[in-house]
Amino acid sequence: MKPSARHGARLLTGAGLAAALLLTVSAPAAPAVTAAPFAPPPADGGKKGQELPGMPSALDPDAGDAPCTPASREKAEKQDWSRQRLDLDRLHKYGTGQGVTVALIGTGVAPDAAGLKGRVTAAGAAGDDCVGHGTFLAGLVAGDGGGSPRLAGVAPGAEILALRGTGPRGRADAGLVAESLREATEARAGVIVVAVALPRRDKELTRAVADARRAGAVVIAAATPDAAGRGTEEVPSRTYWPAGEPGVLSVADMLPGGVRPDGALPTDGIDLAAPGAGVVSGGPRGQGHYLGAGASVAAAQAAGAAAVVRAAHPDASPADVTRRLTATAYPADIPQLDAYAAVTTVPGDSGAAGGSRPAADPVAVRDTSATDRATGRATLFVLLGTAAVLAVLWGAFALPRARRRGWRPAEAGGPVKG
Q1: pTM of the model
Q2: Which CATH number fits domain 81-366: 3.40.50.200, 3.40.50.2000, 3.40.50.620, 3.40.50.150?
Q3: pLDDT score of 25
Q4: Which of 10, 13, 185, 236 has the fewest Cβ atoms surrounding its Cβ within 10 A?
Q5: Which InterPro entries match (predicted)?
Q6: CB contact set of 261 (below 8 Å; sequence gap of 6+)
Q7: DSSP letter assigned to residue 325
């Protein structure tokens, strides 16, 4: 074989090997990205090398005069995964919940907290939040980020009506929850979110929920009490209240992968899941941030989404709002909140409010941009690989014939002898 022929053969052989490698890489590229587009939430709330303190949902009731939750000295400068998951930057171009009042029933809300000034109404004890949990949740519902716009809540244009559903240390009380529901109803709150979950049904609470719904409020409640973990103890599944009341949107917490945390209490009748681990918000004191977790965190974000829906669709009934939140959610065993779709979907579209999307196997949280990029790369690799394989096949066919012709063009070589 002449040097030029040997060189051409080596080039074609190399191209074939490269094509094989490219095809091997391209095949799993898209599934690898879509399977787990979100990494577990960082302990630093999005800022490398910095840890944020945790926000408790209650303080030790036996601690007597123990101090309240101290101000955080740390600040998170980047968006946490929950805000990216809910696509808040895009959502806020369509609505911020302007003109809607969200009644938050929990440990109270500090009216002068960073990111909430001028938009919180808190009468009496509801304005004193020793635990800090209610203020943390208010920031998720309607905070403006306190100088960090990318850490704003779901409905930064909404107003907060702070109400107590717990004692000063955060212990849930059915009587207080029922009383606060009545106050929220009298105030004509458009959305009511109950951040506590009670183990037993209460007649007064049941009546208060029914009255609130008849008055036109969207009622949302944490599906379970917040629980950081329960060790090896097996807790039987049960219904918690008022999440179990008819017409109440029961919301549970989920991890970035779309599943509930290992320490979450088992329950049934969950309507919606929302981010509930490694979520960043502020507290009642100082300018710093905390990390929060639990069904109450998820319920607060769902309440913010409901406020944006109510503002964008003022003629929608409470049932319509609830239907939008559930029918436009990502399909899974527990539908996963998609605030942007709930606001922008037009009734009658595929998967629009009023329709239904059957629950499928659990799905991972989707990151469309990453998937699109991976799909584009995979397509390019396949095209390049296919071209290289075709070149190898052509070479395998053409080179022996050319060699037999003495590397002369076919038209000048005459008959080829064997």
Answers
A1: 0.74
A2: 3.40.50.200
A3: 34
A4: 236
A5: Peptidase_S8/S53_dom (IPR000209), Peptidase_S8/S53_dom_sf (IPR036852), Peptidase_S8_subtilisin-like (IPR050131), Peptidase_S8_subtilisin-rel (IPR015500)
A6: 253, 254, 255, 276, 277, 293
A7: H
